[in-house]
Specification:
The structure is a homodimer. By secondary structure, chain A is α+β, with helices and mostly antiparallel strands. Chain A contains seven helices and six strands. In chain A, the strands form two sheets. A three-stranded antiparallel sheet of chain A has the order 1-3-2. A three-stranded mixed sheet of chain A has the order 5-4-6. Strand 6 of chain A pairs antiparallel with strand 6 of chain B, so a sheet runs across the interface. Chain B binds a DNA duplex through helix 2 and helix 4.
DNA sequence: TTTAGTGCAAAAATTTTGCACATAG
DNA sequence: CTATGTGCAAAATTTTTGCACTAAA
């Protein structure tokens, strides 16, 4: 997900581009880890002291609803956020009978803790994720 | 993940098999959705009134740490839990240079909201998830 | 019999919300 | 100029914890 995509999404949905939001987007761009609200807040307040936690809470909410951020739970009580993977790749439900493929709105990389990958110093290039099974049409056809 | 696997994991780690835990496991077995603590509690307290929320909280914690349950965040403030997919399938970091494949401790199906799949009445048979890139060994070799 | 588990109640922690003022478009 | 956003403070909600008692192994 790129800067322009985020700004466009905000504008298209009637949200304003405030300095606070720009700061948040700047932090999230190019951040490979999932960040808590506090982490986002603290990285900004260094050089931009006039930012409240409340605002960060409100804006991660906005951005998550706009499908800009993935919200993930790593088991401590805090929600964590990361920019979604760029569009332009999709995953599918693939029917083993008719071969039809329906898009699925989920990319594993958005929800995976990148820690193990990073620790192994593995440089990710691409990934595959497909679900195979039988679609409703084929299942009812076969039943006759 | 099957009943026997759960019981074994508990025993092997010195946890006791209490009626409360058995009730919880029964609810989770054969439940395709991710349940909140309250949902688990309420499904049990119908026929087993002597179960406190605290106990459910404690036990989802235990089971998640034992890698029996996946803990997922769907965006409302509540943690949700589901039994992990059965072992016996693994996903990998595959090196595009040397072809080595390292196991990765993450299965997308555990963390995916099954709602869209269910709505489409798609019957899942299997799935693939692999991450491709370059391992550290190959990356340093090439740099020479 | 010993160690772990449970229920109760209270506390902690994160997240949400109401309101008055500020500001982007 | 108008509608949305922000900061502050207070509130709501989920989750955790201390303690005495119970129960599994």
């Amino acid at each position: 997900m790129q800067l322009q995509d985020v700004l466009t999404k905000l504008r298209e949905n009637g949200y304003k581009i405030t300095p606070q939001r720009q700061e948040m987007i700047n932090v999230l761009l190019g951040e490979p880890e999932h960040l808590t609200v506090e982490e986002i807040h603290s990285r900004i307040s260094h050089h931009y002291p006039h930012l409240s936690l409340d605002t960060v809470y409100r804006n991660v909410g906005v951005l998550a609803r706009l499908n800009v951020l993935a919200r993930v739970d790593f088991g401590d009580g805090k929600a964590r956020y990361k920019l979604l993977e760029p569009d332009g790749h999709k995953h599918h439900l693939v029917c083993l009978s008719c071969g039809n493929a329906e898009e699925v709105n989920f990319c594993p990389l958005d929800y995976m803790d990148a820690y193990s990958i990073k620790e192994k110093k593995f440089a990710v290039q691409r990934h595959s994720f497909e679900i195979y099974g039988y679609c409703w049409a084929c299942r009812t056809k076969e039943a006759n």
